[in-house]
Design the sequence.
């Protein structure tokens, strides 16, 4: 592969929601460049527009002005190309399907063979540590288990771009660490591009090659931090001064953007 | 004024002109009666209305009245304004039917709802089965209109001389393209529109008196209608709330109905009664009535009314 | 995105569909009416060409299928050319049917909702009532309607109410079925929340079950109002078919006036369309007030 | 005569009490629970019948108006062949065929309308138009077009069942939540895939409502259609004929058959509903 | 007030779900004592039964065996007494009510006056930093904002016992810190009893007087840690060795309970 090619490229992106009591400026003048193989974390206060931005990339929301390309195309074409896998902030599992069947859903739609489906479902169930729960229905699972099922569903079809909206929010530290390193391994192995929303500063720093700090209303990008950490990241890296320096910068960025002072 | 409720057998039309005339011309009022005329319809069974207390007196055909009487609702004929039967089978000539024997193997349209008795009796007399076999006839429950004949879904359909027959003609089929079999001519005529009340109510002298007045005024209405058919038809039209009746049709109907009522002064003719009963009893394996009815009529009312 | 336009978004599609229907209709006019025309010609011993056949199929007195223009001429004649108070005016008859329909619909809706509420809240009612509500619907109403009318008459109820009650009898059922489902549709977690507040059944009902059942209610209302109209028309038969669209249909049918039947049918259909549309509008109003995501 | 009425009242009150007691108790054993669950409506029904019987005798209601259940039962058992023939004609031929076609058509049009926004704007108003085509007017026309036999009844049933299905399917197809749809969008799922895998499953609760409503509507339609012309067999034919003949017990025997058939039909639909929409809160909550 | 009285007392509590493919043992032999004024955190791997336990306390789930009392009564009577406010793991807002109306819901039900409702709605909106969003409908809010609205709803009616299931899961660190200290203040001021599910070890340690560590399938209590931290807790307390020691013990407990080893 030659010079890393731009997967997401937003310029001057704005999005305003028209609501009953006036417009809400969810994104304003967002400029961002995500290169192939990047692991980009989005961090910012609640309601600052992280989800909205991911939804614009995914062609689930139309921007009001500015330009954005995904894989060099319009978001719509990228979507039609099945360029990405999306993990929603809420699990969004279909209640009439078992967990297994929920994970198989994208595979069915994209026309994978029956055996392939079975294989991948098993693999991803294993990956998110839900083996044995495949035959259960969503309402029979705990919140965290549902979230893991929805991660499995997005991973199953192996898209090159992953859009993950707080995928590990409802998980305990141990599972979270485990999934973090699994995700890193996956990313490293397959050269995926990942856009990752999180509220955990350590998580963002640990995972990312680039951290986007956003501030709220109107959602702006206040800082973009290129990580200087190596690609290979053992868990212990979290104690290094380099790591802590980046974390500090992120925290400062976050605080600056916050509307109320402590 | 005394209240009387009359339940008709069918919708407002010249078939019931006498009653409308009597009401319109004030004949009922003269007798001190306040008469309410309730039109009937395709699923109104006048005996049921009578039994339920919805009417004091009803218009019904004798076969149905006698059959109902056997079922335990004691209907009594108190007057018989219609002397002759207007029912017939009307066939398309092109079916090749010229005599009743030709019916075999054909499809015939028949009215049910208690109106099938004359037909069933007739077929029993002819020895024709009505269960659809090759040597019998296939019977259809005919709807309200003459379409089955026009659409050639049936070879023959039931018609009344005063109504459906003319609809066939109006539809553009010429009389010479039709063959008709009048029940009257076939010797199986049964009495049609008569006035019936419940036996029990006749035990009440006041009610009896009321009925005397009612029959008297009604017959006056009928005679007026016979003499002034066009005016009578107009009166019927005025009373038709559906606004669907046409003048041409009602005037013609009145003309034909007048022919059927002409021979009656209201009193039940015993010969006609005997013939009706005989026809109904002779219904083969499944007669309409199984035994000679007792007390199914009274002449008291008409005797009193026509004094 | 282009701005919405009444012509393009509403009128044009309807016109297209209507146009397509009209074409098919005309074809069928010829197809269905031709046999009779041919027979007539044969009876008269006349040779006729196809174009003559076509011409006559469009001008038959008693067509199997009237041509649209015949129906519209009749509709025009009986609505515009007659005073609305005249019994020959279709507007007059439509009004009679409509008033029955609306009364029956209102009673049916209230009854249906009450039954659904009972069924959802009371296990005994759920277990024992529902099967009999269902059985009641399998009784062919036209068969017992005359008895109902007689009985009601004998207890002094007459006029519009008996007819409306028959209409009610038919229309309350879709409401019951829809609302039982609708009132039970809120998610477990939303019910749990009410549970934690120890909300009374009536609070749970008004604050949760009722709003949650709105999509079901309005869908049922659409079906129910259509069935109310159907019931009102059917109910006109056992009440002597004196007036109303049912009476028009019946006498049209009895006197073989096919065109009159079709005119009345169109009137009934038009009425139904208006009523259903009105319910639809009410639905979207309510949805908007409930802040549903467009 | 008042003995009847007193008995009716006492019977009613005690049966009611029994039922309340039964539904309030929770039974551990599964079979006992099942027995109780069927006993409750049965007791209710028996109560109705007993009250009916007592009222008829107590008030001396003429049988031509309302026959007593015992009389209807006698007639029912003595006319099995006729009833069976009528049942075949009306239920097995007209109702089932008409139901399948009507529901199928309503469903198909709803899908079509959903597929094309143009058709949605054009066809839906027309769909409203045919929502209440009165059987009184339609039945004679259908007899004219399709003949006297069951085919014309099928046509009437189709017309009656079409609209409830259309409305419910259209509404049901919009029942899937926004997020569920967004998920399908991210897969760039085709319209068909979205339909089959998301919107239909989400629509089932509504579709089953239509199937339930139609199960009884179809029966009414077929029976009433037979009032307007039929060969001399069929439940509607029998009912209208026997009313005219004052054989009201036979009328009620037919009605009883209709009620039984209709209830079983409905019950089967409800069973299928539980099976298909097991995930819906209304079913998961334990009762459908 | 005399000797702290027992708010939640579970003995030998078991709960088994019957599912299509066999029973799931969600809780087994749980013994726990929560005293008035306690701040108890529950921590444990995803699917270990934390939510289930809270639901049993709240009388939303029936235990299969063992005994439990809430405020000295059965959970049912406690619920009927409106003894607790519950924050669900998912926001569970009513979609047809505005945020304001959602928060007012328990107040309406409990018969607060109109002015009182208005006052409390405003107060709690302010507390969770959602002022200005009262007139919006839930779908117009971001995930974190919805979660805050649901917290506000549970706080509005001022119950003595709060059951909170991962209330801060979808919030960024800053907001989380803010709400943590607000919650502590509230708890300190009003002597409430709080049962709090969280996945964050620092959060658990920072907030609690008692930390319950659970292990999965069947959900058991593996460790109960009485905090030695003072009641007064500035944010800086998180750097103290005492704090870190407790956190370490929690982490160890968690790891021990975990089914897979890293
Ligand atoms: N459909 C919508 N209509 C109106 N406003 C909306 C809509 N969706 C989001 N918003 C508003 O846009 C802003 C950004 O929302 P978004 O969901 O992107 O936030 P977020 O960064 O994902 O927050 P969180 O971390 O809480 O999930 C919020 O203020 C929200 O109220
Ligand atoms: N309704 C149910 N039917 C069957 N099993 C259930 C049900 N609810 C929960 N479970 C099972 O019970 C176990 C405990 O679930 P619970 O929701 O209490 O976990 P949790 O500790 O809250 O997890 P999380 O942190 O992921 O929310 C899980 O294994 C889950 O699959
Ligand atoms: C369903 C049905 N069809 C026909 C008639 C027949 N009918 C009643 S009065 C009368 C005289 C003609 O106008 C006739 C033929 C009926 N009663 N019910
Ligand atoms: Mg978000
Ligand atoms: Mg949980």
Sequence:
């Amino acid at each position: 592969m030659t010079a890393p090619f731009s997967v997401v490229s937003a310029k001057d992106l704005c999005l305003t929601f028209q609501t009953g009591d006036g417009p809400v400026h969810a994104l304003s003048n967002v400029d961002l460049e995500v290169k192939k193989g990047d692991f980009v974390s989005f961090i910012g206060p609640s309601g600052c527009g992280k989800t909205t931005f991911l939804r614009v990339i995914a062609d689930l929301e139309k921007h009001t002005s500015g330009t954005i390309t995904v894989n060099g195309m319009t978001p719509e074409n990228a979507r039609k190309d099945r360029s990405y896998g999306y993990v929603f902030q809420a699990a969004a599992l279909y209640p009439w399907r078992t967990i297994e069947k929920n994970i198989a859903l994208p595979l069915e739609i994209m026309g994978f063979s029956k055996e392939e489906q079975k294989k991948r479902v098993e693999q991803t169930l294993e990956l998110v540590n839900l083996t044995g729960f495949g035959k259960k229905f969503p309402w029979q699972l705990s919140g965290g288990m549902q979230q893991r099922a929805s991660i499995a569903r997005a991973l199953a079809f192996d898209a090159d771009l992953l859009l993950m909206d707080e995928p590990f929010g409802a998980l305990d530290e141990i599972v979270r660490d485990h999934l973090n390193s699994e995700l890193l391994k996956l990313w490293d192995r397959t050269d995926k591009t990942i856009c990752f929303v999180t509220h955990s500063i350590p998580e963002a720093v640990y995972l990312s090659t680039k951290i986007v700090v956003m501030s709220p209303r109107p959602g702006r990008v206040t800082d973009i931090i290129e990580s200087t950490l190596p690609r290979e990241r053992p868990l212990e890296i979290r104690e290094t001064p380099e790591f802590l320096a980046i974390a500090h910068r992120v925290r400062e960025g976050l605080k600056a953007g916050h509307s109320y002072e402590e | 004024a005394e209240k009387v409720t009359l339940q008709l057998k069918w919708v407002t039309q010249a078939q019931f002109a006498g009653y409308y005339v009597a009401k319109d011309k004030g004949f009922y009022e003269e007798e001190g009666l306040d008469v309410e005329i309730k039109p009937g319809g395709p699923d109104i069974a006048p005996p049921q209305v009578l039994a339920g207390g919805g009417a004091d007196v009803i218009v019904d055909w004798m076969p149905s009245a006698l059959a109902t009487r056997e079922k335990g609702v004691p209907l009594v004929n108190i007057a018989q304004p219609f002397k002759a039967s207007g029912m017939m089978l009307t066939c398309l000539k092109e079916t090749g039917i010229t005599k009743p024997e030709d019916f075999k193997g054909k499809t015939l349209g028949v009215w049910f709802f208690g109106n099938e008795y004359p037909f069933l009796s007739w077929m029993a007399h002819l020895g024709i089965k009505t269960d659809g076999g090759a040597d019998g006839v296939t019977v259809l429950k005919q709807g309200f209109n003459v379409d089955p004949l026009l659409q050639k879904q049936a070879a023959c359909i039931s018609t009344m001389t005063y109504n459906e027959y003319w609809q066939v003609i109006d539809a553009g089929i010429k009389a010479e393209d039709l063959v008709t079999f009048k029940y009257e001519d076939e010797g199986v005529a049964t009495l049609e529109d008569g006035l019936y009340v419940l036996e029990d109510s006749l035990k009440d002298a006041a009610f009896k008196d009321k009925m005397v007045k009612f029959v008297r005024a009604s017959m006056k209405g009928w005679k007026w209608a016979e003499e002034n058919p066009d005016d009578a038809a107009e009166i019927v039209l005025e009373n038709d709330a559906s606004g669907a009746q046409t003048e041409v049709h009602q005037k013609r109907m009145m003309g034909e109905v007048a022919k059927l009522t002409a021979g009656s002064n209201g009193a039940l003719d015993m010969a006609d009664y005997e013939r009706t009963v005989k026809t109904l009893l002779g219904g083969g394996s499944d007669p309409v009535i199984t035994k000679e009815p007792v007390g199914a009529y009274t002449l008291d009312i008409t005797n009193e009314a026509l004094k | 995105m282009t701005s919405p336009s009444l012509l393009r978004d509403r009128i044009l599609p309807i016109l297209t569909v209507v146009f397509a229907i009209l074409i098919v209709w005309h074809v069928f006019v010829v197809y269905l009416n031709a046999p009779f025309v041919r027979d007539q010609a044969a009876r008269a011993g006349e040779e006729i060409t196809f174009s003559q056949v076509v011409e006559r199929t469009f001008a038959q007195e008693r067509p199997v299928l009237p041509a649209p223009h015949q129906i519209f001429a009749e509709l025009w004649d009986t609505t515009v050319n007659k005073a609305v108070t005249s019994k020959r005016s279709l507007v007059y008859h439509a009004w009679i049917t409509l008033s029955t329909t609306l009364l029956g619909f209102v009673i049916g809706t209230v009854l249906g909702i009450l039954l659904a509420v009972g069924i959802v809240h009371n296990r005994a009612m759920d277990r024992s009532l529902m099967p009999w509500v269902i059985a009641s619907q399998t009784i062919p109403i036209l068969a017992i309607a005359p008895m109902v009318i007689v009985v009601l008459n004998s207890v002094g109820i007459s006029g519009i109410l008996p007819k409306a009650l028959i209409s009610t009898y038919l229309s309350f059922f879709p409401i019951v079925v829809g609302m039982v489902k609708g009132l039970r549709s809120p998610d477990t977690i939303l019910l749990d929340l009410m549970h934690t507040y120890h909300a009374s059944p009536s609070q749970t009902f008004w604050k949760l079950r009722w709003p949650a059942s709105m999509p079901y209610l309005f869908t049922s209302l659409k079906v129910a109002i259509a069935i109310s109209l159907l019931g009102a028309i059917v109910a006109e038969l056992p009440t002597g078919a004196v007036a109303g669209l049912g009476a028009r249909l019946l006498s049209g049918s009895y006197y073989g006036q096919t065109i009159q039947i079709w005119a009345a049918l169109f009137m009934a259909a038009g009425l139904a369309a208006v009523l259903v549309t009105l319910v639809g509008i009410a639905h979207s109003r309510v949805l908007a007030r409930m802040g549903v995501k467009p | 005569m008042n003995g009847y009425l007193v008995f009716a009242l006492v019977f009613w009150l005690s049966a009611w009490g029994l039922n309340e007691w039964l539904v309030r108790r929770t039974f551990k054993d599964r079979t006992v629970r099942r027995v109780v669950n069927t006993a409750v409506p049965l007791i209710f029904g028996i109560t109705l019948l007993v009250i009916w019987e007592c009222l008829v005798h107590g008030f001396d209601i003429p049988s031509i108006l309302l026959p007593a259940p015992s009389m209807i039962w006698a007639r029912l058992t003595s006319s099995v062949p006729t009833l069976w023939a009528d049942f075949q004609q009306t239920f097995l031929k007209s109702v089932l065929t008409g139901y399948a076609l009507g529901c199928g058509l309503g469903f198909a049009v709803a899908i079509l309308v959903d597929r094309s926004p143009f058709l949605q704007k054009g066809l839906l108003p027309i769909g409203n138009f045919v929502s209440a085509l009165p059987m009184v007017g339609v039945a004679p026309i259908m007899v004219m077009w399709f003949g006297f036999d069951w085919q014309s009844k099928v046509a009437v049933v189709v017309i009656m069942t079409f609209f409830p299905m259309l409305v419910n399917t259209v509404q049901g197809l919009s029942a899937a939540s926004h997020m569920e749809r967004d998920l399908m969008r991210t897969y760039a799922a085709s319209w068909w895939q979205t339909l089959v895998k998301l919107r239909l499953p989400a629509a089932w609760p509504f579709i089953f409502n239509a199937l339930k409503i139609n199960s009884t509507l179809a029966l009414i339609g077929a029976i009433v259609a037979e009032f307007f012309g039929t060969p001399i067999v069929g439940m509607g034919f029998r009912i209208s004929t026997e009313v005219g003949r004052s054989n009201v017990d036979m009328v009620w025997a037919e009605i009883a058959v209709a009620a039984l058939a209709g209830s079983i039909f409905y019950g089967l639909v409800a069973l299928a509903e539980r099976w298909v929409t097991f995930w819906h809160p209304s079913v998961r909550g334990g009762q459908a």
